[in-house]
Design a protein that fits this description.
The chain is α+β, with helices and mostly antiparallel strands. It has a single domain, classed as Gcn5-related N-acetyltransferase (GNAT) (Aminopeptidase), CATH 3.40.630. 28% of the residues lie in helices and 34% in strands. It has 4 helices and 7 strands. It has a 7-stranded mixed β-sheet with strand order 1-2-3-4-5-7-6, with helices on both faces. Strand 4, helix 3 and strand 5 form a beta-alpha-beta unit. The protein starts with a strand and ends in a 6-residue tail after the last strand. The model has no long low-confidence stretch (mean pLDDT 96). Bound molecules: coenzyme A (COA). The site of coenzyme A has 19 residues, from strand 4, helix 3 and helix 4.
Amino acid sequence: MSRVIRTMQATDLAAVHALERRTYPRPWSVHLFAQELAGESAITLVCEQDDELSGYLIADMFVDVWHVMNLAVAESCRRCHVASDLMEAYFAITEMHAHRGHTLEVRVSNAAAIELYRSFGFVSTGVRPRYYDDDHEDALIMWRDWEGESA
Ligand SMILES: CC(C)(COP(=O)(O)OP(=O)(O)OC[C@H]1O[C@@H](n2cnc3c(N)ncnc32)[C@H](O)[C@@H]1OP(=O)(O)O)[C@@H](O)C(=O)NCCC(=O)NCCS
């Protein structure tokens, strides 16, 4: 099995969007992915496994905080550390330069994702009530400090 984590390309958008639609009840549009891809500050990563797209991660910088905005792994590839590899690649990029930390929102019922983020040092710092449009589920806000040294 070969696994590569690399930057997302425009040619990945169809496969990324297909996985997005299989994963979320309210999927991002292709346009939104394309916008992130074109953005100067965004980090857009995919995991390619045996020439198939098995996952992706999108994050962007807002002021001095990184926001993990989207992360998904194909159902058949879960629990094989695809998300962990994407997160490690993301931290390898982001930890090089000073920033305040990382944040994200996750459904309070999403035990798998919460456990994944905890394993990377995220802690819950609050709740956004009725955050999700489709069913008004609450979002847990998670945070991780920058671990580098300030100048
Ligand atoms: C959450 C998600 C991205 C995890 O991807 P993954 O590639 O399966 O995760 P990993 O294999 O890297 O898991 C790393 C760790 O996270 C935790 N974890 C992952 N899935 C878990 C599950 N189903 N139950 C409990 N813990 C889980 C475990 O601690 C795991 O380590 P371990 O396997 O050594 O015990 C994947 O389940 C997914 O795409 N879910 C649907 C979309 C989603 O919820 N995205 C996040 C939105 S905020």
